[in-house]
Design the sequence.
């Protein structure tokens, strides 16, 4: 099979059929368009997750392929800031499920959403379960930052928790690595959210046990929740490489994991 590029849309339909027959894993990058403070563009989540998926497929072109980016997610809490687009909860779940089901109908049996936006996970998780329950495929989801959470905690320079919540050290470092010409570090501001409970905090290297996301316009004026001043392009390169390596490690496990036959253990009138 000729490999034209990392993205599935770069191939014709016969090549896509060959990919499915070969048992390749489909990576679906999912993120959103939203503001990321005064120093970063609104495409942060989309740009980062697209890059990570593309790099994975470039390194292992016969193992995984990349679906078109889903560039919109759930953002209602952030709509007090310009530059944000939000999709309703039920619409988002059904869109994710429909995209995954489309690849299952093509013949793919391993589909992995790679998420780049912090408010997408509950909707991605429900969509994955819907498709798994209704088809003979395996569909899963992962947040890219969770793949290297331990490394982030060990190597960070920003305060934990809070320095990597939003537009902080991690996202700014990754953007400096991927597309430095678009970053305006002269505009970067550090804005660490007040930790009002020892059970509630937000950080991409590990959140608190209680999940509570307030409307951002109530608690923030900069659009930043973190410390971008700690970011460097070298950190971005190191963390991106580590993320891709972890992603490919899971892809290998995911691809090899058997899909069992369904069984019904319920009582039937004619059962012994």
Sequence:
């Amino acid at each position: 099979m000729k490999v034209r590029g990392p993205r599935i849309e770069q191939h014709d339909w016969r090549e896509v059929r060959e990919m499915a027959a070969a048992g390749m894993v489909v990576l679906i990058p999912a993120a959103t368009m939203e503001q990321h403070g005064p120093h970063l563009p609104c495409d942060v989540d989309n740009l980062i997750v697209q890059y990570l998926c593309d790099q994975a497929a470039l390194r292992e072109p016969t193992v995984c392929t990349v679906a078109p980016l889903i560039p919109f997610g759930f953002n209602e809490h952030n709509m007090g800031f310009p530059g944000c687009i939000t999709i309703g909860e039920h619409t988002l779940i059904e869109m994710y499920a429909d995209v995954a089901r489309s690849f299952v109908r093509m013949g793919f049996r391993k589909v992995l959403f790679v998420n780049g936006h912090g408010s997408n996970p509950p909707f991605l998780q429900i969509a994955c379960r819907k498709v798994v329950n209704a088809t003979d495929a395996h569909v899963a989801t992962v947040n890219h930052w969770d793949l290297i959470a331990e490394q982030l905690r060990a190597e960070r320079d920003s305060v934990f928790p809070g320095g990597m919540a939003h537009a902080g050290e991690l996202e700014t470092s990754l953007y400096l690595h991927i597309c430095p010409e678009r970053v305006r570090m002269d505009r970067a501001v550090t804005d660490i959210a007040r930790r009002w409970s020892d059970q509630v905090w937000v950080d991409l290297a590990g959140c608190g046990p209680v999940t509570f996301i307030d409307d951002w316009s109530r608690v923030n004026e900069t659009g930043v929740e973190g410390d971008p001043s700690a970011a460097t392009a070298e950190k971005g390169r190191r963390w991106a490489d580590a993320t891709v390596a972890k992603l490919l490690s899971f892809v290998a496990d995911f691809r090899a994991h058997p899909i069992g036959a369904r069984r019904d253990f319920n009582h039937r009138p004619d059962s012994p």
Remarks:
- The longest strand covers residues 25-30.
- The longest helix spans residues 233-256.
